[in-house]
Design goal:
Elements (H helix, E strand, L loop, with lengths): L1 H19 L2 E10 L4 E8 L5 E9 L5 E6 L5 E8 L1 E6 L5 E8 L8 E10 L1 H9 L16 H68 L5 H14 L1
Antiparallel strand pairs: 1-8, 2-7, 3-6, 3-8, 4-5, 4-7
Helix pairs in contact: 1-3, 2-3, 3-4
């Protein structure tokens, strides 16, 4: 009996490893220069769905154009001046999908874009796990468990982990946007504060010079100011 339990645990461990590898993910943060189009490629397997999620983190009005082409060079997604979005593809046509971010409408402002591609293979691995055993010698039913029960449990764990990853990704996106806005406001406050301080110093120096010149007989500025005052009183 202990041997059977050990074999069962090994089956469960293999199933967990398969579910852990069930989702391939690629994440990039790229800068799209002003007036440029940058393209990236994702190789899709037939009937293995994948998701594309993107968000503009900084630059201009936080907008970008998006165009996605399938391996037949057909446009499947086209968007104009969007801040963020999420798209799901069934990958009915296998091959390289072209993902292009277009910042050609911007003259001066580059755009910092965060995007990620999820490839969901859990259905394929679920079918493999359904037939999983130890070299075909020890089915899980031997210790009173069912493959369907383990599959459902692992599926729930995988779904919950996927939700956690999604939530963390969303929080990371908002944090990046807030950080960029905060740093931009910090630079603006420092710049305007420096200008205001410089103006106050210059005005203070001019006032001191003018007041001192009123009490100095040899001062040209004082003679000019006193002359104007004298003409005013007369």
């Amino acid at each position: 009996m202990p041997k059977e339990i050990g074999l069962c645990l090994l089956v469960v461990l293999q199933g967990c490893m398969r579910y852990a590898l069930a989702q391939a993910q690629s994440t990039l943060t790229v800068q799209i220069p002003a007036g440029r189009i940058e393209c990236f490629y994702h190789t899709a397997t037939q009937n293995v769905p994948f998701e594309l999620e993107y968000q503009v983190i900084s630059g201009g009005e936080l907008d970008i154009n998006l165009a996605v082409r399938n391996p037949n060079a057909q446009i499947v997604i086209q968007e104009h001046k969007k801040n963020d979005n999420l798209h799901r593809f069934d990958a009915a046509v296998p091959g390289e999908y072209q993902i292009c971010f277009d910042n050609s409408f911007s003259t001066f402002q580059p755009k910092l874009v965060f995007f990620e591609v999820f490839e969901d293979r859990k259905e394929t691995h679920a079918a493999e796990f359904h037939q999983l055993g130890i070299n075909g010698q020890m089915p899980v039913d031997a210790v009173g468990l069912k493959v369907e029960d383990l599959q459902n449990s692992l599926g729930k764990v995988h779904l919950n982990l996927e939700k956690v990853v999604k939530s963390q990704t969303v929080v990371r996106h908002f944090e990046a946007v807030d950080r960029v806005i905060l740093e931009s406001n910090f630079d603006k406050v420092n710049t305007y504060s420096g200008i205001q301080t410089a103006v106050m110093v210059v005005v203070g120096v001019v006032q001191v010079v003018m007041v001192r010149s009123l009490f100095e007989e040899r001062s040209k500025i004082g003679r000019v100011l006193r002359g104007k005052q004298a003409r005013t009183f007369t």
